[in-house]
């Protein structure tokens, strides 16, 4: 017999939780959130960096031992508890710090991720011109070293050092030459300063772009899942249309075959390197959006009997499939760029913002009818990021609203909560539209929602569900929802395999920690790293601090405190689905207070 547990808010006036209009709304929202910019720029880069096609071996292995088990765990937990990322941990209240940690992480993500959208929106606007501004020199932001075509192939002979090969430049001077696309990115868009300690002025153009995307996010989210579920039909599917168009165009370009072969050709020796396995693990946690609490929030709007087990596998297949497909698009274009410039593909392939705002704009500028391709690409970039952004905001707002009892809710509670969230993030974002903004952006990106924070979060999620609540017990709960027991593999992963994978990769990250740099040149000052670690620890410490606080505040012996604080606090819907032989409890007298608490023994 397990300990007694508590049911809260079981009165007849207890409001039912909002649900998706159709189950496909949930699927599309999950696709929109999990399939984002990381699939398009990070996965292909990691593939080429870690041995091409051979990277798929550790990637797929960790998908099955880490990605899918935790992805399923988060969705199932949200669906079972019918709560956002904080209240979902009423399943073991002592570990509610997990909810607070995920809220901190997703808040940081919402804050800095939107900058990529602001930059993308800026490029989209600039695409509507006869000549793309980043394709030519001679603009006010270009330096004397700007050169449109490098012609390195004409400088292969050392005796040609003083021969003029491009513009007024000699072969010897080509080493210092700068591409117009890099100068547009650094001198015009970012107007980047010399370091983190030099904030500089605010860019009014970027600020306007930032306001525009935040307003867009607000009106996508303010009415809840009923509206969000409809919008993602467009924002989640249109990028696939653009990717297919870009692939068809990409494979017809000269050099595309070499680029694709570079992407998929396996280098078996790479399997011996630990870094390959680490990259595979962190990429899965990033692209599957694990540990952010948003999947839990989306799952909480499902019907109680929805088959979330099947959904988890379908969504995982879509996510990883998109990553792999995007690789063909990326490397067909990079192969063309390498052939055009006469250099090796490794010299044109970059990661992160460098790929999105340097390599891609360069690629589209070399295509016929360049402005059309540029507008198409940046519109896709905007949509890829937008659905991830507003589902992230949805997850954060859901968690906040779940903290407040229904009787304290205002008629326009959601609209107000979303407005406060967007406004607060926007104020912080103002530090990222300054001349030193890129350094601030990288601090957030490297520390606040890094691999380490997500791995730490995933490790504790597995421990709480498998060892505190009980893996077998949760499998029974899942069986109640979907009508059958999932394959025991899930239980084994939650209990042993996934926590070991998470803590192993986490420790490797810690041991091989390297100070943050920008472009491998600028090294962040010590106080910058301190700020970064504060961002990381602000979420990671939520779990131990909350646990210790609750234990010290409770009364009784340690065993009594533990038993009390790990006893689940059930919601009203559990009466109907989990205790059918105790129907009398759900038909309380109309005069019963809405907030009455009922204690009864588990019948599980």
UniProtKB/TrEMBL annotation:
TM ranges: 26-44, 56-77, 98-125, 202-221, 233-257, 277-301, 313-338, 372-404, 416-434, 454-471, 492-510, 530-552
Subcellular location: Membrane
GO cellular component, as recorded: plasma membrane
Protein's membrane topology: Multi-pass membrane protein
Binding site for Na(+): 32, 34-35, 39, 287, 319, 384, 387-388
Disulfide bridges in this chain: 137-146
GO molecular function: gamma-aminobutyric acid:sodium:chloride symporter activity; metal ion binding
InterPro entries associated with the record: Na/ntran_symport, SNS_sf
Keywords: Disulfide bond, Membrane, Metal-binding, Sodium, Symport, Transmembrane, Transmembrane helix, Transport
Origin superkingdom: Eukaryota
Annotated PANTHER family: SODIUM- AND CHLORIDE-DEPENDENT CREATINE TRANSPORTER 1, SODIUM/CHLORIDE DEPENDENT TRANSPORTER
Family from the record: Belongs to the sodium:neurotransmitter symporter (SNF) (TC 2.A.22) family.
Name of the protein in question: Transporter
Organism per entry: Anabas testudineus (Climbing perch)
